[in-house]
Structures are given as C-alpha cells and as structure tokens.
Specification:
704 residues, alpha/beta, 8-stranded mixed β-sheet
C-alpha cells in the first residue's frame, strides 16, 4: 500500500541495514495488511505520529494556489488597474473640458461599468461546468471545477507505473530451462505445484493457474493424485507438493520458490537434456540466466524436482534436499495495449510523462522500453535524498564547470523520466521541484503513497478504486484507469481554456477600444459620442453574442500545446486590438461629421450612428478574434455562436428603430446610405484585423 508494489514484503524480528523506511525488516507500518504468518509486535507510534498519520497531516493543510487561480487573480488585478486608471482619466478629461463635475462623474462610472467584462463570471463558470459534463461522459468525475483548466495547462504528467502503463496483474511470460529454451514440462510442473497447493493462492499461483488453463495444461491434473505438501513460509521461501502418477504409481516431488533458496536444496541440474552435477560453474550459468530476465523487469521463480518420497508420517522440510534444478517460470506485469499510442499522443500535445514508482528500476525501465517512453537515466529514491533542492530542481547544465556528466546532478528532475524505489515524500519532492521550475504538473496515483503528491500537484488525478486518502487528495477521479482518459481530459481542458481566453481577449480589447475612442471623442467633440444609457444597452446586446462562447469550437492547432495563464499576453492583446478598433472608430467619427453632417446640431444622430457601427463591428470581430486562421473560410464558429452573433447584429439595427420614440434613449432612424458606409468600414476593419493578426502572431508566436 505504501510503495505500490504487488509483491508481498516479509517482516521479521531480525534487524537489518535498510536504505529506506520500507526496507526495515522489523518495522510494520499502520495501514498495512498482514497476508500470512504470525508475530508479536510492540506499538511504538499511534495516530498522526505514524508514517500513515504524517502523510494524512501533510495533505490536511491548505492546497497550494494552482496555475488557474494564479491566472484569474492576475486578471482580476489587471482589470481593477485598468478600470481605475481609465475611469480617472475619463473623469479628469471630461471635467476639464465640460466643466461639469457631476456629469463627468456619471460618465466615468458608466465607462467603469463598460470596461468591465460583465459576462466574465458567467463565461468562466459555464465553460468549466460544461467541461465537467463532457468529461463525465468520458468516465471522468471532476471534484474541483477549477482543475479542468489546470488539466489543459499541464506540460508534465507524473504517474505511477502499475495500473497506468501496466495491467496491474502479473502474467506468466516464460517457462524455460537453464539453456533458455521453452519447455512445456516446466509449465506442467509449476501448474501441478500451484494447483495442488492448499491455502490462499498468491499472485504467482494465480498467474500460473490462469496461464496453464489458457494453454490447456489443466488436463495433466487427471494424471496425478496429490499425496503430500509442505506449504510456503518466509523462512524457506519455497513450496513443495508430492504427487503420485495414476499411470505407473511413481512419486514425484515438485518445489518452486526464490532462486537462491531453490539452489540451496539442489545437487543436480538438468542441462542440455541431461542431468548433471550442480557445480559452482553451473550455479553461475543458472544465476546469469535468471538475471537476464530480472533485468527485463520480470519476477523469476525457480522450479526443482525429485522422485523420492519417504511417506506421509515422515515427510518434512528435510526432504527438500538432493533435488534436481529444472528451470524457471518468469512473470511480468504487462504493458497496456494502448499505453504506447497514448504516450505518443500525449507527447504530440506537449506533455512530458514521468514515472514515479515504488517498484524496482528493472521493472520500471522494462515497461518504459515496451511503451516507448524515452529515458536516459533512472534515479532512485535514495539518490534523490542525496541531492539538495537546488541540485534536484535546476535544469541548466553549467558547461563552464569542469565536471563529468555522471557528477552533474543539477538537471536531474528535468532530464530523468523514470524515478524508482520512491517513497511518498520523495515523490512529493520531485513534483514540488518540477512546479518550482515553472511546469504545470499533473499527478496520477491511487495509493496511500501517492496522496502527498496528489495534494501538491496542480492537478491531482486518481481512480474510483483508489484508497480513500488518495481520492480525498485528488481533484479528478477517473472511472477507468487509463492514460487515454487523461489525454481526452487534457484536450477538453484546453478547449475550456481556449474559450475563456477567447472571451477575455475579445471583451477586454473591445471594451478598451470603446473607452479609448470615447476619450478621444470627448476631447474633440462638443458632445458625448455615446450616452451612458446607450453604453449600457450596447453592453447588454453585446453580451447576447457572448453567451455562445462556451459552446464554440477551438482550432485543432490550438489544442496541440499546453496553455498557461499569462496576464502579459492579455494586456498586450488588449492594447493592440483596442487601438485597432479605435482607429476604425476615428474613421467612423470623421465620416459621421463630414459625410453625413452629424455635427453639434445633430448629436443624437451621431450617437445613434456610433451605437450601431460600434456594436456591429464588435460583434463581427468575434469571428476574427476567435481564431488565428481566416474566419468563415479556414475556421468556422460553432453554429450556436453564428446564430447568436447574427441575432445581435439584427438586434443592433432594429433597436434604434424600436426605441427612437422613447426620449430617454436619444435614438434616431438612420438613412439607408449610412448602412452602406458601415459595410465599407467593416470591410476595412476586417482587412486591418487580419493584417494586425499576422504581424502579432509573427512577433508573439500565438494569437490566443
């Protein structure tokens, strides 16, 4: 439960020289399960003072602020700053020119309302809520709604090996003799040993029986009758079964167990089809063959046999002697079929996958090779303890320092993709250092050992079969343990981010552009270009088109890279696009004044004209801002957005007509030639925005 390994751990009274807490022979940890054996123990710590308790205390504190929350806080500060600066500037300019403090104050307040993206809370929450519904259909439950955007922003995914890359069950892979050749008789001997053994079947026994049934070895049971057995225990690390042949009444004893323990009771070995003496040279050959498979990450179990049997009343452990070494059975937790393809897809969208496992490095590296996960070096938990935070976190290799690559420990957390023999606090430390390096980190785990890392990560991901402490620490719960589900979640998270940032950039830039235009107009015009009530009505109509943004589609290219919140990008976009829209407004002002004669004596016509032109251009420009491609041709908006922007444009045209008789709105009915002028302005605006877009992307590398 603490390391994630499926193999049982033996505990004994004899102390040893451990490398870590999990290697201590005579310490049992609260939260573990005793599977077999017996013993007497002394309780030395309870509650929060135990190892499990300390981990609970670790995740009981407040979760660190995430990438999404940092971004939203920065945007809030930016909006407040802009609102204060612009409102004060408008108030000062208008009061200085008009000499009417009260009117200037009311106008400044209207500007403050206008520059604030009033739909921001709705857009963010609808986007996130819709994201949770989409993910629920894809077997993903979201506990913390903000984690959806964080999921889209991750560029590093840390995950355990077992159950994520592997099937989480050991499967028999090899049944071989000392020469390395497959030998069906070895599979049969192993099957008879596991089948006839009484008591609880362990993982190895179950794997042998399942594999044997698939290969139709089960029929061999009918040829034998079980006579006797010596059950497995952790002292001998062996299990022996005696059977009698139904054909010739001959006895046969089969023993399986740990390689070193089987070798202790063998005096002969079956080699090249002949039974030879087990010489030191032969022992070396046997151990080398076993090591070959162990290095591939397999668990190797040895098989021995003999034909002597002394009888029921005298048969005991001493009979496990003078046996013949037959061969091996090797097991592996196999890689999931879709793991390699999914890892490749994750890499294609800018996500680096790192394995943090409590398992041994051989098993971890073997699985990584099978699934195509690149790894230059494997770091053990004990190695991490030797590194300072600076050495673990820093990733710039200082070439001017004359050190060998082996001694350069300053780039470990960035370069290494496999961390093995990790305890919970070591896992947490790696996640923390990755975050310190500026990464947005997702962590996937389901054990007690994963809970500190789940808590500290930007996005903690667990599964519904996980331990309670892991699910409590997680932000997202998967109903299916698969990296494929993570990939789909990341794509949905990026879509959510895309639509939120899309709204922010278009709303802020248009609002800023309007206010900038109003400031310019306030200086040169003898009247307000737009009345406060008209500004509020314009804001209301514009918001109708924004309702559809959470349902809009996102360009495929946008989804290919992780997206982190950047206030700097929003501020720059706001200034560029705001000034661009103001240029069109200035052209509109000149046209209204000189072409149509909407001067001081016709201020209501001027205000109506700008109300219509400004709102239509803002609504149309949504389609230009939402994509870095050419709108309507290379990238089309979702039909819902198309319909609502059309409704807004129609509503903009008919609103002055419907309200022109109501004095407080100060609207007039405009001539048809005015709409021809608006179409010309929109054409100029569209071409200008596309030119600006190309320059902006070339300079900044992105549009949204």
């Amino acid at each position: 439960v603490f390391t994630g390994e499926s193999v049982l751990v033996e505990k004994a009274t004899t102390p040893n020289e451990p490398k870590g807490i999990f290697d201590i022979n005579n310490i049992c940890l609260m939260g573990s399960s005793v599977v077999s054996g017996s013993g007497t123990a002394v309780v030395i710590q309870t509650g929060f003072d135990t190892y499990l308790g300390r981990m609970s205390k670790e995740i009981d504190n407040k979760k660190e602020i995430t990438n999404f929350e940092k971004g939203m806080n920065n945007i809030t500060k930016l909006l407040i700053k802009y609102m204060i600066v612009v409102s004060i500037a408008v108030f000062v300019i208008y009061a200085f020119i008009r000499h009417d403090m009260m009117e200037a104050l009311l106008f400044a307040l209207s500007v403050a309302v206008g520059i604030t993206p009033s739909m921001l809370p709705m857009i963010v929450n609808v986007n996130l809520t819709r994201g949770t519904k989409v993910l629920a259909k894809k077997k993903t439950l979201v506990k913390n709604i903000n984690s959806i955007q964080n999921l889209g922003a991750i560029d590093v995914l840390c995950t355990d090996k077992t159950g994520t890359l592997t099937e989480d069950k050991i499967v028999l892979q090899k049944y071989i003799d000392v020469n390395g050749n497959e030998d069906t008789s070895i599979l049969e001997y192993a099957y008879l040993n596991s089948y006839f053994g009484t008591g609880m079947k362990n993982l190895v026994d179950r794997a042998i029986i399942i594999y044997g049934n698939e290969k139709n070895v089960k029929e061999i049971v009918n040829d034998y009758t079980k006579i006797d057995e010596i059950p497995f225990d952790y002292t001998r690390k062996r299990m022996s079964v005696v059977v009698k042949s139904n054909k010739n009444n001959g006895y046969r004893m089969f023993t399986k167990g740990a390689l070193e323990e089987i070798l202790k009771v063998c005096t002969k070995v079956k080699y090249n089809g002949h039974v030879n003496e087990l010489t030191p040279e032969m022992v070396e050959i046997v151990e080398q063959k076993a090591k070959e498979y162990a290095v591939q990450g397999m668990q190797v179990i040895a098989i021995a046999s003999k034909r002597e049997y002394r009888g029921v009343n005298v048969f005991n452990v001493s009979d496990e002697a003078n046996m013949t070494f037959i061969g091996f059975v090797a097991f592996l937790d196999p890689a999931k079929k879709d793991a390699k393809a999914t890892l490749k897809k994750l890499k294609s969208i800018g996500i680096t996958t790192k394995i943090l496992t409590g398992d041994n490095p051989y098993a971890a590296n073997n699985i990584c090779n099978l699934v195509g996960l690149e790894n230059k070096e494997t770091l053990l938990g004990t190695d991490i303890d030797k590194l300072s935070d600076e050495e673990l976190a820093a990733f710039e290799i200082q070439t001017r320092v004359k050190k060998s690559v082996e001694n350069m420990t300053g780039f470990k957390v960035e370069e290494v993709n496999v961390f093995a023999r990790m305890n919970p606090l070591q896992k947490e430390r790696v996640v923390k250092q990755l975050k310190n390096n500026g990464h947005v980190v997702g962590y996937m785990g389901d054990g007690v050992n994963d809970s500190p890392s789940l808590h500290i990560a930007d996005v903690g991901i667990s599964v519904n079969t996980a331990t309670d402490i892991a699910k409590e620490a997680a932000d997202i719960i998967l109903l299916e343990r698969s990296l494929k589900v993570i990939y789909e979640g990341v794509i949905e998270g990026r879509r959510v981010y895309g639509n939120i940032i899309k709204y922010m950039k278009m709303a802020l830039s248009s609002d800023f552009g309007d206010v900038f235009s109003i400031v310019i107009a306030s200086i040169f015009l003898p009247f307000l270009p737009l009345l406060p009530i008209q500004m509020l009505l314009q804001d209301f109509l514009y918001d109708i088109s924004q309702i559809a943004i959470p349902y809009d589609d996102v360009d495929k290219e946008f989804l290919e890279k992780p997206k982190k919140w950047s206030t700097k990008g929003i501020s720059k976009f706001m200034n560029v696009m705001g000034i661009t829209s103001s240029l069109i407004d200035v052209l509109a002002f000149l046209g209204f004044w000189f072409l149509f004669g909407y001067n001081a004596s016709k201020e209501t016509f001027f205000q109506t004209a700008w109300f219509v032109e400004c709102l239509i251009s803002e609504t149309l420009i949504i389609h230009f801002v939402r994509t870095e491609k050419i709108p309507f041709i290379q990238s089309r908006a979702n039909p819902i957005l198309m319909v609502l922007t059309t409704v807004t444009i129609i509503g903009t045209i008919i609103t002055p007509i419907l309200l022109h008789n109501i004095q407080s709105f100060h609207f007039e009915i405009l001539p048809l030639k005015y709409y021809g002028f608006v179409i010309l302005l929109l054409a100029i605006y569209s071409v200008l925005v596309e030119i600006i877009k190309k320059i902006y992307i070339k300079k900044n590398g992105e549009w949204l």
